[in-house]
Write a structure and sequence with these properties.
CATH class of the largest domain: Alpha Beta
Radius of gyration: 36 Å
Order of helices and strands: HHHHHHHHEEEEHHEHHHH
Largest sheet: 5 strands, antiparallel
Number of helices: 14
Helix content: 55-70%
Distance between the termini: 56 Å
Length: 334
Amino acid sequence: MISRILGDAKVQQVGKRASAANGLAGAVLVPAREYLEMGTQMNHPSTGADSSVTQNHWVYRTIWLVVNALFLVALCLVFCAMTWEYSTRRYLKGFSDAVVPALAAPEEKITAILAWMAHGPARLPLAPDGTTQDRDPTDTLNYESLLKVCGSATNGFINLADSSGLAARRLLLLDGDRGAKHVVAEVLLNGRWIVVDPSFRTILRGASGQLLTQHDLADPVVFSIATHDIPHYDPSYNYVKTGHVHLTRIPFVGALIQWILDRYLPEWADSPVTSLLFERESLAAVIASLVFLLFMCFLRVSLRWYGEVRLGIRKVRIRRKFHRAMHALFSRAV
């Protein structure tokens, strides 16, 4: 009986050894380099502590997720704004090609745009929502009511002039309180910014037919001669006080921003690009979305630095994850 029991025990021990040998024979051998990397990662103090540290700092984790979500939103906004600006540019290019002769001289291009505004095809009488302060050229060029208002008429003219290859900017005629009472356009011709009044469909000229600048029109005699034959022209639309950009309408901070820019960047408002930012909503949307994207990039980098340096949270970067995935994929394939 005892010998039988001992014999059965030996048989069971031999069976276990055989099973272990078969298991080792059927296992996939792990390369030494991968085994060492796995051991290093498992034994590294930061690897095991990352999850616990992150769990302890749930506020940081929540902020990190929100910032990443906003970063993706910023990318989407940039894409949408650029698509909008591209479609607007294509629309204006087609419009200007139909209105302005491609080989015409700069002054002839101005005359062609004003002639189209004055005697163009039949247009819809009112904008869809009845507004007269639209800054979208796809609207201002198609509604009669918008082309009769100085602001939106100047908007349409500047966008068409820009698409025709002319450098144009808006000019505000200011009252004693620096409020805008009329809006005209300036076009760069032969090194001089000559004045064009799109709402009255005219280029202001002197007694001998010469083109006039805002400095010429600041003279009351020259101004009287230039506007004498314009029907229903208001004499208060003079050129004593002028400006290109009026930020004081922005609540609370507009006047401060205007003062800072005028003090430290005196010529910031003289650029035609600055006028386009206020006269083309799609371009303003592109700039605003890019600024938002840069801010989110800075915030994301700063938040990652704070988590790694101050909180000890080590996050695996996307390029590192991609490298590991490619290494695992191709190593298995081989």
